[in-house]
From TrEMBL:
Class in the EC hierarchy, top level: oxidoreductase
GO biological process terms, semicolon-separated: pyridoxal phosphate biosynthetic process; pyridoxine biosynthetic process
Cofactor requirement: Zn(2+); Mg(2+); Co(2+)
The record's free-text note on cofactor binding: Binds 1 divalent metal cation per subunit. Can use ions such as Zn(2+), Mg(2+) or Co(2+).
Reactions listed under catalytic activity: 4-(phosphooxy)-L-threonine + NAD(+) = 3-amino-2-oxopropyl phosphate + CO2 + NADH
Binding site for a divalent metal cation: H174, H219, H274
Protein name from the UniProt record: 4-hydroxythreonine-4-phosphate dehydrogenase
Annotated localization: Cytoplasm
Lineage: Bacteria, Pseudomonadati, Pseudomonadota, Alphaproteobacteria, Sphingomonadales
Additional remark text: The active site is located at the dimer interface.
Annotated EC: 1.1.1.262
Protein family per UniProt: Belongs to the PdxA family.
InterPro entries hit by this protein: PdxA, PdxA_fam
GO molecular function: 4-hydroxythreonine-4-phosphate dehydrogenase activity; cobalt ion binding; magnesium ion binding; NAD binding; zinc ion binding
Length: 341
């Protein structure tokens, strides 16, 4: 049943968790999350990927399942795993082409299950982007791939990074810093802001979200002396959105937006480029930060970190962000039911 037809949160199916790169820390943090499922109140979930990547790093019980219904039954006693293409020899910390193909297939299957409503949503473990590009992946990241599979235009799929004390939205995402200025347009900022507002309402139950917008340049351009993007692009975008009734302020100097008193004044900060958004978020919430895609018909979250190939297979990966991603996915699914009914 599609999620939009579910009115009782207790009727939600399990979440599909794509395992990401088999040689990264994805399998380990998913297995550790399963171990912590009761202590942390995690929703039922099942892994989608190569079960061998779990076995390579974990001795716990794994149940091979072929449907989310089977996964729901198995979840209490074993980590359910829906097998996709085998990744060949798995050496934690050493990514391979076969592993990248498996990661991509796992993502594809997980998205399909969420789109049909068989899964309550997807939680994606990290992929190695360089490795994915090597197998012909033509999207900058998982966000854009999932958006395409859901029939959503890339500018309407919004990457939001969220932790308990901060939510940030990078307006431009995976592009070279040198291209940021050219990529910033009034239309793009407007699209990100409008989707952010709807996403905060629908996934977080915030009735009237307060947005704040960072400038691109030092001191937000210093009246044009340090750059004109604030005057010609960011400012006009904010003015037009405010005229439509949004609670949105800026552009402000980015360096003053993230201290604790400033964070109390907004629900989400729109940032002009990837690191402007992710540095404060990861500084505050590396171990419980979540990447959520807004603007999709399905719930999608992910831990805020990457594959951490350097520590894969060493049993030192912290599952905190993965557990936060699972919890946030469940809260978002419940919030959507409340919002839509
Ligand atoms: N959502 C996704 O699929 C993401 C994928 N990536 C990919 O991950 C790969 C590596 O990226 P990096 O920039 O090195 O970032 P990274 O997050 O993988 O690693 C950065 C540092 O944090 C540590 N770390 C990361 N997660 C940890 C955890 N759960 N517990 C303990 N330590 C942890 C790593 O060991 C490393 O020292 C790249 O291929 C990148 O494309 C990066 C970010 C997100
Ligand atoms: N730095 C965030 C990131 O890389 C997440 O990208 P995505 O693969 O979730 O689109």
């Amino acid at each position: 049943m599609p999620l939009s037809n579910i009115t009782d949160p207790a009727a939600l199916p399990p979440f599909a968790v794509s395992l990401g790169d088999p040689a990264g820390i994805g399998p380990e943090i998913v297995a550790k999350s399963w171990v912590m499922r009761e202590a942390r109140g995690l929703p039922p979930f099942f892994a989608v990927g190569d079960a061998a990547s779990l076995r390579a790093v974990w001795l716990g019980p794994i149940a091979a399942v072929s449907t989310p219904e089977e996964a729901m039954q198995a979840f209490g006693s074993a980590l359910p795993c829906l097998q996709v293409a085998e990744a060949g020899e798995i050496v934690p910390g050493t990514p391979s082409i076969d592993g990248a193909r498996t990661a991509l297939q796992a993502l594809e299957v997980a998205v399909g299950l969420a789109r049909t409503g068989s899964a309550a949503g997807i939680v994606t473990a990290p992929v190695g982007k360089e490795q994915l590009y090597g197998v012909g992946f033509a999207h900058p990241g998982q966000t854009e791939f999932i958006a395409e599979r859901c029939g959503v235009a890339p500018h309407n799929a919004v990457m939001m990074l969220a932790g308990p004390s901060l939510k940030v939205v990078p307006v431009t995402i995976h592009i070279p810093l040198a291209n940021v200025s050219d990529a910033l347009t009034i239309d793009l900022i407007r699209a990100r802001a409008l989707t952010s507002v709807k996403g905060l309402q629908r996934n977080f139950g915030i009735a009237r979200p307060r947005l704040i917008v960072a400038g691109l340049n030092p001191h937000a351009g210093e009246g044009g002396a340090l750059g004109r993007e604030e005057i010609e692009i960011i400012g006009p975008a904010i003015e037009s959105l405010r005229a439509e009734g949004l609670d949105i302020k800026g552009p402000f100097a980015a360096d003053g937006l993230f201290h604790s008193r400033a964070r109390e004044t907004y629900d989400a900060a729109l940032c002009m480029y990837h690191d402007q958004a992710l540095i404060p978020l990861k500084t505050l919430h590396f171990d419980d930060g979540v990447n959520m895609t807004l603007g999709l018909p399905i719930v999608r979250t992910s831990p805020d970190h990457g594959t951490a190939f350097g520590i894969a297979g060493k049993d030192s990966a912290n599952p905190g962000a993965m557990m936060a991603a699972l919890k946030m996915a469940a809260e978002a699914a419940r919030a959507r039911i409340a919002h839509d009914n």
